[in-house]
Amino acid sequence: MFTHIFRTRLKCLLRDKETVFWSMLFPLILAIFFNVAFSSLNEHEAFEPVRIAVVDDKAYQENHSFQDALKGVSTGEDRLFDLSETSLDEAKVLLENGSIEAYVISDTTPRLVTATTGLGPSIAKIFLDSYVQLSSSVTSIMSQDPAAHEKLLESLSSRTAYTREVSPGGGSPNSILNYYYSLIAMACFYGAFFGNREIMDIQANLSPLAARVSVSPVHKLRSFIYSLMASLLIHGVEMLILILFLSKVIGVDFGNDTAFVVFTALAGSFTGVTFGAFVSSLVKKDEGVKTGVILAVSMTGSFLAGMMYEGMKYIVSENAPILSYLNPVNLLTDAFYSLYYYDTYRRYALNMGILGIFAAIFCTGTYLVVRRRKYASI
C-alpha cells in the first residue's frame, strides 16, 4: 500500500507544474539574477588615485623631503595620488573645473586647498597630517641625538604592522553571501506549497480528489503521511539541486562542512513542507487564502533575514533580537553563514535546535488538526 500511494503521489506532484516552478525553478532564476547583480560588488574595486596638484614654487623646490614623500606615494601601480606640478593660478583653474580634487601649497607647513569634501580630499588631508607629524618627530629626534640619523632612516623605511585581519573560522567576511543563504532559506519555505497541496488533497470539502481519499479504506492519516513523504522527497531533491547549482555554477562558498550544509538544506526543506501543511490545516478557507498566508509569512521572513536588503538582518538583531529567533527563515540563513564563518558549531547548533522546535510545532499542530477533522457529509 505504501509503495502504491508513494509512487502515485510522486507522479501527481511532478505533474503540478506551478508548484514545481515556484519551489525549484523560481529560486534558480532568482539566483542567476543575484549573480548578475552582485558579481562585482564583493570584489575589491581598483583604487582610483586621488587627482591632486602641488604648487611648484620656490618653497616646494627647496623642500626636498616633502618632494620625495609626495612623489613616493604618486608612483607605481598602487600609487595614492595622481600628482601634477603646476603654478598656483593653474592649480586654481584645475580645481575649479574639476580636473583635480585638491592642491597643495608648500609653506612651512604644507596646506591643502579643496573645493569639496569627500574621500579624495580626506585621503590627501590624512597624508599631509601624517607627513607633518612624522617630519616634526624626525626634527625633534635629530636635534636631540644627531647620531640616530642612520637608525632613524632605517626604521622609517621598514614600518611594521602589528595587527592583521582574521575571521573566527575559515571564511572571510562576505556580506554578499547572506543574499544567497537567505535565498536558500526562502526556497526551503517554498516547500510549503507541497505541504499545502497535501492538506488540500486530504480535506474532503475542498476537492473531489480529497473526497475520494476520505472515503477510501486506507486510514486518512496514514495516507497523508505516505503522500507527505513523496513531497519531502521531491522538495529535498530540489534543494540539493539548488545547493549544487549555487556551489558549482554561481560559485557560492559554503565553507568546508559539506555534510552539514546538505543536512541544513534538508532540515529546512522538512520544516518548510510541514509549515505549509500546518498553515493549510489551520486556515479554514479556500486555496487562495492558504497560499496568500504562506507567501506573506515566507516573504516577510525572507525580508527580515536580509534577502532584499542585507542590512535589515542586522537592524532586526540590534533592535528586536527576539525576532531573529522567531523567524525560521533567518534561523536557516544564519545556520548557513555559521557553517561558513565560524570554527565552532555553537551558533549553528542553536539555530538548528530552534528550527527543530518549529518543525515539531508544525508537525504536532498538523496532526492534531487533521486527526480531529470530520465531515457530516461530502
UniProtKB/TrEMBL annotation:
Topology class, membrane: Multi-pass membrane protein
Domain ABC-2 type transporter transmembrane: 17-364
Short name of one Pfam family: ABC2_membrane_3
GO MF terms held by the record: ABC-type transporter activity
RNA-binding listed as a keyword: no
Principal location class: membrane
Localisation: Membrane
Coiled coil (residue ranges): none
Keywords: Membrane, Transmembrane, Transmembrane helix
InterPro entries, alphabetized: ABC-2_transporter, ABC2_TM
GO CC term (a single one): membrane
Top-level taxon in the UniProt lineage: Bacteria
PANTHER family: DOXORUBICIN RESISTANCE ABC TRANSPORTER PERMEASE PROTEIN DRRC-RELATED (PTHR43027:SF1)
Protein name: ABC-2 type transporter transmembrane domain-containing protein
Organism: Youngiibacter fragilis 232.1
